[in-house]
Amino acid sequence: MAKIKPNNFLDIVDEVFTDATKQGVLHLYADGDILSGRTIGIDGKSLFHFGTTGYLGLEQDKRLKQAAVDAILRYGTQFPLSKTYVSHPLYQTLEERVTQMYGNPVIITKNSTLGHIGVIPSVVSDQDAIVLDHQVHWSVQNAAKPLKSRSVPIEMIRHNNLNMLEDKMKSLSSKHKKVWYMADGLYSMYGDAAPVKELLELSNKYSQLHLYFDDVHGMSWAGKHGTGYVMQELGELPEHVLVFSTLSKTFGASGAVMTCSNKKLHSKIKTFGGPLTFSAQLEPASVAAAIASADIHLSDEIYILQRELGERIHYFNALLKETDLPIVEYNESPVFYVGTGMPITGYNFVNRLLKEGFFVNLGLFPAVPVKNTGVRITISRHNQPEEIKALTEAMVYHYPKALEATHTTSDKVFTAFNLKSISKETSKYEAVQGLSVQFETCISNIDTKLWNSLYGSRGVFDYNGLQFLEKTFLNHNDETFNWQFYYLIIKDQLNKPVLATYFTYALWKEDMLAPESVSKAIEVKRKADPNYMCSYVLSMGSLFTEGDHLYLDQSHPMWLKAMQLMLDQVDKLDKTLNPSMIVFRDFKQDDVLNEFFHNHGYFKVIMPEAAQIHKLKWVDAQSYMEKLSAKSRRHFRKDIQPFESCFDLVIKGQISKAEKLVFYKLFQQVSAHNLGLNMFDYPVGLMDEMSLNPHWEFIILHLKAEYTHDQKAIPVGVMFCYSNAGNTYVPAFIGMDYAYVQTYQVYRQLLFQTIKRAGELEKSSIDFGLTAGFEKKKLGAEVTKKVAYMQAKDNFSLELMEMMGGTK
Question: Are 423 and 526 contained in the same domain?
Answer without folding.
Answer: no
